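Batch manifest, entry 17 of 40.
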Amino acid sequence: MTDTDIQSKLAEYEGIVRILTTKLEEAVGEIDRLRSENSQLRVEKSDALTTLQGIYNNPRTTEYNRVRAAGLALQHELPRLKSVPAPLNLIAEEVKDYIPLAELVEKRRARQDRMSRERAEERNRDRELLPRPSRRNGGNGSDGDDTAG
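Output type: structure tokens
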């Protein structure tokens, strides 16, 4: 091996050591961040709802996990709808002139048919009273005197 080969190998290994050192520093920083986050979670109120809220509020969490955490937390964040007692004390009274629905519909349809017939008769009567246009002038409003003008 020549001196230049040794120098090139040494430079290559130094580059690898620099890369590994950078990655190690990044890993140590991530470990420190996770340790501080872990200790913070242990100090805070650590019930299930708080944990879920922490997950869906964390921008570093994956979108899938954020959506799942939000969906699970939703049922505990919003109160369920419950039935409430009626605000008024209402008592139903018996109707004096009760008409069964089928009979009422039959009466209303008969009334509507009668009104439709009467209206049609009125229209026919009005048509009979209106003067009919003369067929001589073609109904164009002229008197047949085309020389005027």
